Amino acid sequence: KTNTIILNSTSRFPSTSKMIKGTVALAMFASRASAFAPVTSRWAKLSSLAATPNAGSVDVGASIPDVIFKTRTRIESDDQNPFDWKDVSTDDIFAGKRIALFALPGAFTPTCSSTHLPGWEGAYEEMTTSLGIDEVYCLSVNDAFVMRRWGLDQGLEEDKTIGANGFKKVKLLPDGAVAFTRGMDMACTWDTERGFGERSWRYSMVVKDKIIEKMFVEGPRFQNSGPDPFEVSDASTMLDYLKSVA
Question: Where are the bilayer-spanning segments (predicted)?
């Protein structure tokens, strides 16, 4: 007797149509999975910023970057906003002068408003009358409108003479396009940490005829840093230095 084995292809093997459907489903899954790869890669890159220190910065003896600051100068007008645009160059501010400058992350932020700017405003007279400083500037990556409003909010006395470019004591310098800050290698990005975007790290310096005489840089300096150190860029530290070389 011959045994005949009949294979039921319908029950044991998928039909051609089912195989095609399965192949299409796998292809769609692979396509969707690959779409998430750039996102995963981007977040991995952002996370790594928190552990990436800046490579370095412009230091003592170096020239400061040549940039143009977009400022607002007072004009003769009855308008509520009696100002017009004025380009101010690095030479206009630093050439042939001994300047003290301090930089901070942002106008209206807590430490900058409660301690950093007020300390320098309080030390302005001593620095400029007996310690050889021609002018004091506060730099931040904000536009001219924000810087003026912050100065008024801080109670700084505004210089209302025609042609004036800010306040009577500490001058607020807008670096809205980050040009000077990048040139100093002091740009830091606080994106995932605070949503700030690109700002300036805290530091202070004395610049004599466009050459850096002395610098105080807060540390450790990290991109997307959680801590916001404020130990050496304060006015007291600068006063101690200026007195030591007076």
Answer: none
Residue 4's CB: how many other CB atoms inside 10 A? 5
Q: Are 207 and 197 in contact (CB under 8 A)?
A: no
Q: 45 in a domain, yes or no?
A: no
Query: Residue 202 is part of a domain; what is its CATH number?
Result: 3.40.30.10
- Per-residue pLDDT, averaged over 234-245, amounts to 98
In a domain, 32, yes or no: no
DSSP lists the bridge partners of residue 162 as: none
Q: 3-state DSSP helix/strand/coil percent for the chain, to nearest 5? A: 35, 25, 40
Q: Which of 103, 112, 188, 207 is catalytic?
A: 112
What tens digit of pLDDT does each residue of 64-73 get? Answer: 999 999 999 9
- Band the pLDDT of 17: cuts 50, 70, 90: very low
The tens digit of pLDDT for each residue in 190-234 reads 766 666 779 899 999 999 999 999 999 998 877 776 777 889 999
- Give the whole-angstrom CA distance, residue 37 versus residue 35: 6
* Domain residue limits at 241: 62-245
188 is catalytic: no
